[in-house]
Specification:
41% of the residues lie in helices and 20% in strands. With 414 residues, the chain is α+β, with helices and mostly antiparallel strands. It folds into two domains: 98 residues, Helix Hairpins, CATH 1.10.287; 296 residues, Bira Bifunctional Protein, Domain 2 (BirA Bifunctional Protein, domain 2), CATH 3.30.930.10. Strands 1-10-11-12-15-9-8-4 form an eight-stranded mixed beta sheet. Strands 7-13-14 form a three-stranded mixed beta sheet, with no helix packed on it. It has a two-stranded antiparallel sheet with strand order 2-3. A hairpin with a 2-residue loop joins strand 13 and strand 14. It binds one RNA strand of 88 nucleotides through helix 3 and helix 4.
Length: 414
RNA sequence: AGAGGGGUGGCCGAGCGGUUGAAGGCGCACGCCUGGAACGCGUGUAUAGUUAACGCUAUCGAGGGUUCGAAUCCCUUCCCCUCUGCCA
């Protein structure tokens, strides 16, 4: 959630910032007005309520002394209906404000480039040079089936389209990658977690998936539970509604979980292969940070994720997302895109974001410093998407016969 | 799933209709004491909104009701614990 006081006091600046994310000024104006309305209703309610509290106390004193209370009682009864009305309008004002506020995306950082979509993203740098093949490299789906690593048909039979099965060496490589990622993240200071794969709606609201993006979530029937779309949800919300000691910051966490997404809105995209599945494995990093340190930690997280790809010998590039491509909660995002020789394309394999205090405000994650409570900054990033790494290894490490070499750093995990 | 018990501040725990935002304890912070520390003593210590500030308002799992007045009474609901059942 954005800071409404900031919106109120710096409307033009705020509105300019959110233009980058495609929020029009009229919506923000409405939000600002609703905020003002709420304040007015609160003042009206609170002052009347104060009067009631005062007279009620007096009433008690009268009673104790055995004085006549009929006059007071008449006054209080009149106040009562007024208060009910005032309270209701204050509540309505709050509800409509919140309903709108929860759908407004985060402010992008000033450094975020202007742009409409992924075509306007800005490349930061390339790491490792794609190797030259003296044959035409194949795409991963062919390689996966030929090597007996991936069974697409039976995945569909078991569930539906966009599900697949890994087997044999493919399954083992998946597991090896998970272990390699977790171990490397641990060395970088990220403590390992094993988490519930279903979270309740309050948590999904905290990290920003709800209320706006419920369509992309698998919901459990008759329960207030959703399959997590990323470990960012449970990891960040470990501290939901908590006040952490400033000395415990930064809190660095990592977890492997399967992730579940309906992929609403991506109909027809990446229907072949394992790029876009309803269920996929990911190792995630999350940081709960002091606002002064979040930029530094962001850089560290990018380096760590990029380091994983480098260690695996996978050519990749770092991309700064433009305003139009930036996620709902992110103030700044760097994507890592891995080179896929079969597709002759760089494809997203990690996304590292600083949400600043946007999630913290929703999830009420604060830190206490000098007796004062403030919102923390939360950061998240994949390190890495496991299935996509598997694909990248298949395509980058294939030989002319379609056989796949195992990267050196993974051999001890196989 | 059935029966019973319970949800109060960072934690434990009292309160069971009116100066209670909440006794007491633990923890924590600061001060005194000490050569230094422990012990001891003193002071302070919930969250959010609003205010220049004093203060005011809300919050005792959540929602609703009774009442002039609810942490306290009633209803609904969620969660936790124990026993029984089931089960990896």
């Amino acid at each position: 959630m954005i800071d409404l006081k900031y919106l109120q006091n710096n409307f033009d600046e705020a509105s300019m910032k959110l233009q980058k994310k495609g929020v029009d000024a009229d919506t923000l104006k409405m939000l600002k007005d609703m905020f003002a309305t709420l304040k007015e209703s609160n003042v009206a309610f609170e002052s009347t309520k104060a009067e009631q509290n005062r007279l009620s106390k007096e009433f008690g004193a009268y009673k104790q002394k055995g004085q006549d209370t009929s006059e007071l009682k008449a006054k209080l009864e009149a106040l009562k209906s007024e208060i009910t009305k005032l309270q209701e309008s204050a509540r309505n004002a709050e509800e409509s404000l919140e309903n709108l506020a929860l759908t407004i995306p985060n402010f992008p950082d000033d450094a975020v480039p202007q742009g409409a979509d992924e075509n306007d993203n800005v490349e930061i740098k390339k790491v490792l040079t794609p190797k030259a093949f003296d044959f035409t490299p194949k795409e991963h789906w062919g390689l996966g089936v030929a090597n007996g690593w991936i069974d697409f048909e039976r995945g569909v039979k078991l569930a539906k389209s966009r599900f697949s099965v890994l087997k044999g060496k493919g399954a083992k490589l998946e597991r090896a990658l998970i272990n390699f990622f977790l171990d490397t993240n641990a060395k970088a200071g990220f403590e390992e977690f094993n988490l519930p794969l279903m979270n309740n709606s309050a948590m999904l609201l905290g990290t920003g998936q709800l209320p706006k993006f419920g369509d992309d979530l698998f919901k459990i029937d008759d329960e207030d539970l959703y399959l997590i779309p990323t470990a960012e949800v449970p990891l960040t919300n470990l501290y939901n509604d908590e006040i952490v000691d400033v000395n415990s910051l930064p809190i660095l966490m990592s977890a492997y979980t399967p992730c579940f997404r309906k992929e609403a809105g991506s109909a027809g995209r990446d229907t072949r292969g394992m790029i876009r599945q309803h269920q996929f494995d990911k190792v995630e990093m999350v940081a709960i940070a002091h606002p002064d340190k979040s930029d530094e930690i962001f850089e560290m997280m990018v380096e760590n994720a990029s380091g994983l790809l480098t260690a695996l010998g996978l050519p990749h590039r770092l991309v700064m997302l433009c305003g139009g491509d930036l996620g709902f909660g992110a103030a700044k995002t760097v994507d890592l895109e891995v080179w896929l020789p079969g597709q002759q394309k760089y494809r997203e394999i990690s996304s590292i974001s600083n949400t600043r205090d946007f999630q913290a405000r929703r999830a009420k994650i604060r830190y206490k410093e000098d007796g004062k409570n403030s919102f923390v900054h939360t950061l998240n990033g994949s390190a890495l998407a496991v299935g996509r790494t598997l694909i990248a290894i298949m395509e980058n490490y294939q030989d002319e016969n379609g056989e796949i070499e195992i990267p050196e750093v993974l051999k001890k995990y196989m």
